Amino acid sequence: MSTSVNRDFRWDRIILISLILIGCSSGVIALVSDHVASSHQKQYLSHPEPISKLNGYNLPKKELAVALGEKTNNELVLSEDVVEPKIKDVKLGSLPPCSCCKKTIRVPKNPYTRHQSAARSLPNSFFIKNDAELQYGLSVSKLVEVSDGRGYRIDRLKFSNAVLLPEVRDLLENMGNDYADALKGTDSEGTVFRVTSMTRTNNQQRSLRKRNKSATKSLSTHSYGASFDIAFMDRANDDDNCNRPTREIQKLLLRYQNEGRILIIPEGGCMHVTLLRVKS
Question: What is Dmax (Cα atoms) for the chain?
């Protein structure tokens, strides 16, 4: 009896253990299959559909800016919106000027006696004593009025008149054009040299001598309409300094002097320029 009971008991254990083993093995298989499946998935980022293909989403249309007033066949023409750089509006004379004198510019000095001789030898020159003779010179075209030009401007004249001999005015215009050309395309473009003195009557020369001890006591070349003074360079750009304007006016004066076209006296407040000969 005891032997049969023991055998039945053993079979129950065997069946129980078998069931446990079967259940555990099923769980292990499930875990392993999930891990394997996930390890075989593709590892990359997906690229979504373009927004334009999605229903209910409208992309804004890109359009070029419309230039007002431009029409072709009654339709507006599209053009790119160009933003122009802002240009500083600088009035000539509103900025501190660059000095043009013997302290800032190095040029050889020609003796004043040479200036006087050159002034007397010019084709239309004559000694202008007073306002009546000045007006006479203008009436017969021996003297001509002078105004602002390219590369130069005329200052407010207190002891002289804005007139010169025709050939001296031509000299001034040539120098102005050459100066403007030298500065063209640079940061100093638009800078001009300032003429502070031109033709004086002998009466004006005497009045000036009372105020300015450096004014000549002999016959002035200004009284022949043969000379003018350059005292400053007026900048057109407040971002620029005086280096280039000063260097270029010095080169200009030296070139004209070396070519035998002008005589120069560097003074404390200006450059005194006299026409030496008419350019042929």
Answer: 169
Give dist(CA 275, CA 120) in Å, integer: 11
Q: What b-and-e string marks burial along 79-110, b requiring 16 or more CB atoms within 10 Å of the CB?
A: eeeeeeeeeeebeeeeeebbbbbbeebebeeb
Q: How many domains does the chain have?
A: 1
CA nearest to 204, candidates 158, 166, 135: 158
Separation between Cα atoms, residue 112 and residue 87, nearest integer Å: 45
Dist CA 168 CA 119 (whole Å): 10
Does residue 246 form part of some domain?
yes
Name residues whose C-beta falls within 8 Å of residue 198's C-beta, 6 or more positions apart in sequence: 146, 154, 157, 160, 161, 162, 163, 164, 222, 225, 227, 228, 229
Query: Is residue 57 in some structural domain?
Result: no
Q: 234-263, pLDDT tens digit by residue?
A: 998 888 899 999 999 999 999 999 999 999
In this prediction the pTM is 0.66
Residue 13 CB-density burial (10 A; 0-12 exposed, 13-18 middle, 19+ buried): exposed
232 found inside a domain: yes
Q: Map residue 171 onto helix, strand or coil.
A: helix
Contact between 165 and 125 under an 8 Å Cβ cutoff? The reply is yes
CATH of the domain at 192: 3.30.1380
Domain that holds residue 219: 98-275
CB 256 within 8 A of CB 174: no
Kind plus residue range of the DSSP H or E element containing 66: strand 66-72
